[in-house]
Specification:
174 residues; mainly beta; UDP N-Acetylglucosamine Acyltransferase, domain 1
């Protein structure tokens, strides 16, 4: 059923649906899974070739977010919650779940998901191009994530973090 909804509903229909429902502007060339588990806040913009999908958890985008081209957003069993006024640059990956890989006798595809921790991103966050946000990440309000960073764990409010793994190198002035 999910595959049918993904491939049979034209992009412009999904764009119109999300605009009517929440005032979100979704490019017809973005791929947004049609499900009640994905929601967009008013005036959120989803650019071309963005992929938004869920594998069980909820995915919520706040008001006036901007999701740039070629980014991929996916939940596992945990929720991915993104606050208001968040800016996500091109080619970012936000993945809220992962499979266990410990049992050699069981194919990876058949192994259970690791604990459903999800991801939380606060309000007014900037995530630089080519960044990856892993399960259980918590990015505080007003944080800036440098281009190419890998975020796992907690980034405090108003912190500036860069690197693989991301480390705090400063804080935004008040």
């Amino acid at each position: 059923m999910r595959a049918l909804r993904r491939h049979l509903v034209p992009g412009f229909v999904l764009s119109l649906y999300h605009y009517m429902k929440a005032g979100a502007r979704i490019s017809p060339s973005a791929r947004v899974q049609l499900t009640s588990k994905i929601s967009f806040g008013n005036k959120t913009v989803v650019k071309s070739f963005v992929i938004v999908q869920t594998s069980g958890g909820e995915m919520r985008f706040g008001r006036e977010c901007a999701l740039s081209s070629f980014s991929h957003f996916s939940t596992g069993a945990g929720d991915v919650i993104i606050g208001d006024y968040v800016r996500i640059a091109p080619n970012c990956t936000i993945v809220g779940g992962t499979k266990s890989t410990t049992r050699r006798a069981v194919k990876i595809v058949d192994q259970p998901e690791v604990e459903p921790n999800g991801i939380t991103i606060g309000d007014d966050v900037l995530i630089g191009a080519n960044s990856v946000i892993l399960p259980a990440a918590q990015i505080g309000t007003g944080a800036v994530i440098g281009a190419g960073s890998l975020v796992q764990g907690r980034i405090p409010d108003y912190a500036i973090a860069v690197g693989r793994p991301a480390r705090v190198i400063g804080h935004r002035d008040g």
